[in-house]
Specification:
By secondary structure, the protein is an alpha+beta fold. Helices cover 22% and strands 28% of the residues. The chain is built from four helices and six strands, in the order αβββββαβαα. Strands 1-2-6-5-4-3 form a six-stranded antiparallel sheet.
Length: 190
């Protein structure tokens, strides 16, 4: 991205789902295919600290996005990215598993900071591409970085395990009324 700043059309909001990050962006980057819009830059995250992402990574809705080469050593000059042992599979809307999302936290002097990174990986069986292209699948990740708390990630994963269905208060009330309770009077607050 360098010195030029990405300008989006008026009203455009970049808020991709996990599936979109993998299928529409990471897959195309790893397979060396063009991506439209080409807004996510390549960045060596391991050479920069998270608070220095402004102007280097694509920013939208208080989150930074970038592609990075996958490395085992996640140390930077200011600290290191630590895998916190939380990961979740990413599925398409058709139910096909296409990737994995790992959660990392940035540590300074061994202490967890408020910087969280979601690191997305492609599965090798996602596409019928050539062996040369499959090598690229293992070499690239797409990252989403934000300030937050580690427990927010743990809570998000535990909430996602509820079959992916989020009910409103009225839905919960409706579903709590089964056939056995039809004779019961419903009382409303006065």
């Amino acid at each position: 991205m360098g010195e030029e700043k990405m300008v989006l059309p008026p009203g455009f909001e970049f808020d991709p789902t996990d599936e979109e990050l993998i299928v529409s962006f990471l897959y195309r980057r790893a397979a060396n295919l063009p991506c439209y819009p080409n807004i996510i830059p390549d960045l060596d995250i391991y050479s920069a600290h998270p608070w220095g992402l402004h102007g280097k990574a694509f920013w939208s809705k208080n989150e930074w996005y970038f592609f990075s080469g996958l490395k085992q050593n996640r140390a930077t000059e200011k600290g290191f990215w630590k895998d916190i042992g939380l990961s979740e599979p990413i599925f398409t809307s058709k139910g096909d598993e296409v990737g994995i999302k790992n959660y990392l936290v940035f540590c300074v002097d061994g202490v967890h900071s408020d910087w969280i990174m979601e690191e997305y990986h492609l599965l090798n069986n996602y596409s019928t591409t050539s062996q040369n292209q499959l090598r690229g699948f293992k070499e690239w990740v797409v990252c989403r970085v934000r300030e937050g708390k580690v427990f927010d990630c743990e809570e998000k994963i535990s909430n996602d395990d509820d079959e992916g269905v989020e009910l409103s208060y009225l839905d919960e009330v409706f579903f709590s009324m089964d056939g056995d309770d039809q004779d019961d009077d419903i009382t409303f607050p006065t």
